[in-house]
Structure formats: structure tokens, C-alpha cells
Amino acid sequence: MDELIDICDENMTTLGTAMTSETHRLGLWHHAVHCWLVRPEEPGRVLFQARAGGAGLPPGLLDVTSSSHCPTGESFDQCSAAALRQLGLEADVASLVPLGTKIDVARLEPEIVIHEFCHVSLLVDARRPDELHLDHTEVTGVVEISIPDGLELFADETDEITAKGTDYDIASGRWRRVERRLGRSEFFPRPDPYYAKVFIMSGRLLRQERHLAI
Fold first, then answer.
1. Euclidean distance between CA atoms 182 and 124, whole angstroms
2. Is 32 exposed, middle or buried (0-12, 13-18, 19+ CB in 10 A)?
């Protein structure tokens, strides 16, 4: 969705506003929120959302459980609440565990440049992917990956893992449970070890450890 957002410089100083399409075309710095759901069931599981595609990338790539740009005039808490509503969750933003800011830099195609300050948080929630109230026009699927499997995959200790979740079957018009074999190529491409750090921090959170940061 094209919307008006704040743009800033490399030091997060607000410079003005622009539409998201223009922001990505020109590679302007802006803010976004990343909300990761962590299931506490042993050994701990992190939920990934299947992207609808676009920006020159194929549909179905796995990425942040839920994310959102920050429309002009809205706080990061408001943006996080909106991101969670994509999953049918009306969670109290006070339950979110902030990890700080991730700097996202990428060129997805010649005219799509990502320069984002991503404000990352974790939310512990016991619901499985098939228990979420998903809107298929916004979310095409969700899978959960155990923390040990995620760490092995993104430490290059294995080439594939098994993940369970749910996706929307267009033919039947229904959500269905799925089990998938996943390799690193099936995740949204990022040059930094972001996903590995999310699994590490999720494990620390479930062990009630302090000093969490992305």
C-alpha cells in the first residue's frame, strides 16, 4: 500500500515526508517496525510470514512474522499494533520486547532501494500458525521454525529443515496445514545474519535472560 511516511537522514533526523513508492525508488531513509512471534512450546519456535511477492521477488519467500511502515504521525507502538493486526492479534504493545534498531540496506531491483531503520521486537504467544486469524489478502501463509533448527540452518550447519504452518489455498478458498522442507534460498534475501540473531534472541528471551539486542 502506498502511503505517506516520514523520511530521515542517516542519523534518523526527520527531513520531511514522501510516499512509500517514492521513498523506495529514491532510496530515502525511513522507519519500519518488525514484530516477531515466538512460541514458547519446547524447544521454542519462531514464526515466519510468506511474502506475497513484488519488488522483483517471487511470492512465497519467508520473512518477518509481521512488519509495517510507519505512516506520518503514528508512533512506533501504533505501527507495531497495526502490524500485529495483520495476524488477527490485538496484543498489548506493552507485551512486546524491544530489541532495538536494525539497519536494512538492499537493492531489490534497479528502481527499488531499501534504506530502512527497522524497530524490531519480539512477542511471546502460544498460538500455532493455524490458530491465527489471518487475512489472505495480506498474508499468504505462516510457518514456524524451531529455534535449534533455525540456528543450524542460518549457521550453515544444515542445508534444509522441516517447518510446519498454514497457507491459503486459492482453489478451495481455505487455509490448510502444511509441512515444508526449507533451505536458505526460500527466505527473503538479507546480507546480514538477521535471521540467526532473531533465533538467538528468541532463545534468550524464553530462558528469561536479559540484555537482548538485535
1. 23
2. buried
Residue 11 amino acid letter: N
Q: Which of 11, 13, 7, 14 is nearest to 29 (CA)?
A: 7
Helix (H, G, I), strand (E, B) or coil at 56: coil
* CB-CB neighbours of 104 under 10 Å: 16
| Cell matching residue 174 | 481455505
In Å, how far are 111, 164, 210 from 141, measured between CA atoms?
A: 27, 11, 32
Predicted model pTM: 0.93
CB 165 within 8 A of CB 139: no
Q: Which amino acid would we find at residue 156?
A: D
In 129-157, which positions are buried (b, 16+ CB within 10 angstroms) versus exposed (e)? bbebebeeeebbbbbbbbbebbbbbbeee
208: left (phi over 0), alpha (psi -120 to 50) or beta: left
| Lowest-pLDDT range of 57-61, 71-75, 78-82, 171-175 | 57-61
- Segment (H or E) for 2: none
Task: Report whether 204 contacts 212 (CB < 8 A).
Answer: yes
